[in-house]
Specification:
Length: 111
């Protein structure tokens, strides 16, 4: 990141909480400067997406997790947590994905 670079942005790491509190098959929501983010533990793999369905703004952290897919609790659209891409209608736009880090047992999301 160079000074004066119009495309440069500051990376912000937002603390989600202890890894021990996010067990496999579960999700949590964290407020970030980029808006709410849903963090999922899929069999030990941590994945994060914007916590808003692109169809009707429902919270995806409250959705149904099946493998790498989360189903919107409102109308049933599914999103791939690895890519953010919708897998079925009524959603047609992808959700944003965010990198996740674990440092000293604390989960952090990069926004």
């Amino acid at each position: 990141m160079g000074t004066g670079d119009a495309n440069a942005h500051d990376v912000v790491l937002v603390e989600v909480g202890p890894l021990a509190d996010l067990s496999p098959g579960h999700a949590c929501r964290v407020e970030t400067p980029a808006g709410p983010v849903a963090v999922f533990n899929v069999d030990g793999e941590l994945l994060a997406i914007a916590d808003k369905c692109t169809h009707a703004d429902a919270s995806l952290s409250e959705g149904y997790l099946e493998g790498h897919l989360v189903e919107c609790p409102l109308h049933g659209s599914q999103f791939d947590l690895r890519t953010g891409e919708p897998q079925n209608f009524p959603a047609y736009a992808a959700v944003r994905c965010f990198p996740v880090h674990v440092r000293e047992g604390i989960v952090l999301v990069e926004v």
